[in-house]
Amino acid sequence: MAKFQVRFNSDKCKGCELCRAFCPKGIIVMSTAINSKGYSPASISDQEACVGCQSCALVCPDGAIEIYKEETSE
Ligand code: SF4
Ligand code: SF4
Fold first, then answer.
1. I want to staple 39 with a disulfide (CB 3.0 to 4.6 A). Which of 9, 10, 15, 20 is the partner?
2. How many domains does one find in the chain?
3. How far, in Å, from the CA of 9 to the mean position of ligand 2?
4. 26: domain CATH number?
């Protein structure tokens, strides 16, 4: 089994919500915090539910998302 870690570079994010729109699992949410550019950055609500499809990373115009695969021994 593999698990996926989605990491957002919040300071690159401009809050366009494209990643949220394209996530098939609906697990990307917009933060209520404000980043250094004055936008509400995207974040993940349920890391465990991520299927690693990379849609969010591919669609992000600012390269603010990276997906890491973690192999588990289960
Ligand atoms: S990799 Fe796919 S499932 Fe995971 S957060 Fe991004 S769009 Fe959603
Ligand atoms: S697609 Fe990129 S810039 Fe747009 S909200 Fe998502 S992380 Fe931020």
1. 15
2. 1
3. 9
4. 3.30.70.20
